[in-house]
Amino acid sequence: MFQINAxxxxxxxxxxxxxxxxxxxxxxxxxxxKPKSDLSMExxxxxxxxxxIYLISRYETMSRxxxxxxxxxxxxxxxx
Length: 80
Description:
The chain is of the alpha+beta class.
């Protein structure tokens, strides 16, 4: 059978604790790296030239389409 002494048990315990901490750190980093957008402060806009739909700030009156670089005048009545 296997013979495990106290040093091996302590080593396994430390490695498992470090692996758990590294996993928690990685999870936190990946969770934090996601871009969060507050949709209450943004709205959808459709380009009049290429019909590309993109997000803009609620307070913008002019925006540039990220796809075709056309300048769009944003109105409250513009429907998607």
